[in-house]
Write a structure and sequence with these properties.
- It is a single chain.
- The strands form 6 sheets. The protein has a 6-stranded mixed β-sheet, with helices on both faces.
- With 344 residues, it is of the alpha+beta class.
- It has 9 helices and 20 strands.
- The chain binds zinc ion (ZN) (2 copies).
Length: 344
Amino acid sequence: MAHLQLDAFLISSPANCFYLSGFEGSRGYLLISADSSFLLTDFRYLEQAGIQAPHMELVTLDKHFSEVVAALIEDEGWSDLGVESERITYKEYCWLKERVNVPLKAQQQLVEELRAVKDEVEIAIIREAARITDEALEEIVPLIRPGIREKDLALELEYVLRKKGGSGPAFDFIVASGRRSAWPHGRATDKKLAADELVTIDFGVKLNGYASDMTRTFYLGTPGKKHEEIWNLLLEAQRAAMEGVRQGVTGQEVDRLAREMITRAGYGQYFGHGLGHGVGLEPHEQPTLSTKGKEILAPGMVITIEPGIYIGGWGGARIEDMVLVTGEGAETLTHSSRNLTLQI
Ligand code: ZN
Ligand code: ZN
């Protein structure tokens, strides 16, 4: 904050609030300066906040939040207020603008940058989340058969993940079969899986606040030549990218390793998304691995490597694993087998 010449900073993203304070409630704001830290929440969360964030000074939101913020700014004598411009709602911004008498300064990705590098405790949780993810997939593989609805498969997965200690799904699971497998983010529907189809399953669990994220694509039956060609290409592209993951390289450079391989094979136009992203308190966070990913990889970052090829009207496939950037290179955290063929 000294570097940014900022007196005070209002944090409104729940993930950022949790990261800095430990507070898990659904409504809360952190208001911090170089030498004070306030947690603003309402009656419902007061006792919880005291226990989860004992080092924060609790302030009850017994008035409108913008009035509480304005009063604190005046009491503390701050001369400006940073806000998370990508997180605050327009309504909150208007309220603050109306009541706060100091300039509001838009800040981007401040806490997110800190969150990108995980410490040992965070890595241990993510490692466990990845382990549960692998185990859950293994348990539901016998259910991936013609006749089951995509939605039921998603439900079974969620059930197994919760039974294994997860607190819930990390995001809406993608179960996309047949032609729908060409939709990179096709949510599970009432469609039933059928023989001789591709099915892409992209899922993850939340554990102690942290997410996992993994994708496998299966072919129900004996895959054709084109299916195998695409799958082998994705495997090679993923391997090349994983081997290129090390501290000091940018997300862009890692993306290029996979993208060039896919492009050389003639499928570049069908790989329309980035190669991967950071995973942590949110399933998608810094750093970005894409043609635009400028962030430099550092030890402690947890990222996904997920090349995909999607051909409209035909189908698609993606393979996604979580990787920890280490001092020496990278360590893969998800270990589920990468077989395309599912004998039915
Ligand atoms: Zn995913
Ligand atoms: Zn992902």
